[in-house]
Amino acid sequence: MANSLLQNDPIDRADFEESLMNSPNKYYVILDSCDESFIQARVLQEKERFVCLYRGDAKEKLWHIAPYLAQFDQELLDWVTTILKGTPWGIVLEANADLEAMRKHLRHFLMVDLPDEGEVYFRYYDPRVIPTYIETCTANELDEFYGPIRSIFYLEDLESDTFTRLSPVHLSGREFD
């Protein structure tokens, strides 16, 4: 990754699990239901656990392809690395914010304005999209995007158990509740 404002580290599953269990921060997952029916089924079974990032009409009409946010734990780690292995299921975020603050923060980045097409959905939570997007950000854009996020984890190789961790070299230090 060419952006000197980012630290890019491979982290194997054992180290990821240790971080998940011992970090003072919270871990969240954004599940991308666009390409995976197992995610849609899980969201329907556990409605109280998953929060849709879309609201209003979009939530009602696009629920089956929407991104869903949930607190990440060992059980979800096992699920995404077995049942969803090989699919672009989403990304994991380490943050110092509660679920509602994360939802509010992440919703800011769902839409982008393209010159020829107008406003369109931006699927930044797709593991095939996030590295390119983050790599092209300026310092101010990184600071805005990361906000309460300390690290982003994704599987570069969808068949692997080695995550890539993206962390800004310098964070603004903003605290979120």
Structure description:
- By secondary structure, the chain is an alpha+beta fold.
- It has one domain (6-166).
- 33% of the residues lie in helices and 26% in strands.
- It is built from 7 helices and 9 strands.
- It has a 7-stranded antiparallel beta sheet with strand order 1-9-8-5-2-4-3.
- A hairpin with a 3-residue loop joins strand 6 and strand 7.
Number of domains: 1
The H-and-E topology, N to C, reads as EHEHEHEHEHEEHHEE
Total number of helical segments?
7
Q: Alpha-carbon distance between the termini?
A: 31 Å
Mean pLDDT comes to 92
How is the main sheet built?
7 strands, antiparallel
Strand adjacency order, main sheet: 1-9-8-5-2-4-3
Q: What structural class is derived from the secondary structure elements?
A: alpha+beta
Low-confidence region ranges: 172-177
Helix content: 25-40%
What's the alpha carbon Rg, rounded to whole Å? Answer: 15 Å
Percent of residues in β-strands: 25-35%
Strand elements, count:
9
User: What overall geometry do the principal axes of the alpha carbons give?
Assistant: globular
